[in-house]
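Pair request: fold both.
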Amino acid sequence: RDNLVVVGDASQSIYRFRGADYRNISRLKADFPNLKEIRLERNYRSTQNILTAASSVISHNTNHPILKLWTSVGEGEKIGLIETHSGKDEAAQVVAQINKLVEAGYKYSEVAVLYRTNAQSRVFEEVMIHNSIPYVLVGGTKFYERKEIKDLIAYTRLFLNPQDSVSRARAEKNGKRKLANYEAEIEDKRGLKIAPTELLDLILNTTKYLDNLNQEIEEDMARIENVRELVNVASEFESISEFLENVALVQAEYYAGEKKGRSKNVVTLMTLHAAKGLEYRAVFLVGLEEGIFPHSRSILDEEEVQEERRLMYVGITRAKERLFVSYARMRNLYGNNNPAVQSRFLQEIKPEIMQTVFSNTGNGLIQNKLTEGVRIQYKDMFGEAPRTKRSGVRIDSLSDSTLDDFLSGDISVDELLSR
């Protein structure tokens, strides 16, 4: 009765969407005023440069106490920055850096690639398959094995072959009336040259596939993002048959890998949420762009941004020896190439502890401000524009000059919301 021990770190509170609240720690102090606090600030895992990166990011959170981490491990390597032109280039360069680590004596199993959303796994899966890099997807299903992806592929196959009984049976499970509407729509289009993205749009419109999904629900949002990623893949191909051939090749590699048996020496792919509590000699934090990380749904709500920053902190502190951060200047979103803006979290890492390990953008180390002259139309990239819970401001209600000021780093989130 007189012995209560509570262990926690407000900086690692990352499950707000499940009801977790970093304020529970401060409430505990209020409920037990004689509580003795012991701050465990010595870190036995990471190098000092990694801890400095973590501290420089999380110090921008002002709503909760922050530990001052230190270590006797040593300074270690600088944080490696990978700047690429596209998301596909990003995945290719991450794989190239992994190969360099392996050549230097690292095992694949000592390396992890961490991303904000499950949909981001697709391009890394494919690049690793094409480069014969063994990997395991933790806490998720391989991209082309996800329900929504298999459903849409079934509809796509029926366009080329209406006699495909397996695809027909799968499509019927989503509703025979929806299938009938779809087939009525494509009847006079068979034999015509239709782009894969055009067909996917037709499928989504005639079957109303996304209508019952709620963007405010985490699992539904993940499914929506997976569908959008499938459209991104489709945009890389001119014909439906080429698109389906690529899908079949990747699926064949899935099955071939399963047949060989699972090796323990594999690169780990997983979301940042799934990585909590784990550690790796080398960690890659990928997709560090505004709208991806921090997520588009969080970008105009300061509480949500601070939650995203805690997630970044968790990701950084998974690394023991090497930490790499990456972003792309252009991102294929819903079949369209859009200019991207590097994440504010990258800007918050002290430049003196970073070094560029690859850049095909011509920009080298991160600038002090977000890339100037680049605008992101969030309403085009992510469908509904994000709404802040504090004021109801929407991206599409802002003037172009105000949005430019925000994306260039000239005004803060609070200043944006006050306009």
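--- second member of the pair ---
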Amino acid sequence: MKSSLHKKVVPATLRFLNNMAPLRGLPVEITRLTVKSKELTLFYIMNVYL
């Protein structure tokens, strides 16, 4: 289920995680695993960063 919104959100999410990871000391491996499960990416961000 790839909507146009999804296609916009995922790149923005990647940039957000890449920017935040060094600040929070988040392991890159976790970031990459999160990206692989696209359905969980926003859920992950809501729980970790908000």
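Observation on the second member. The mean pLDDT is 66.
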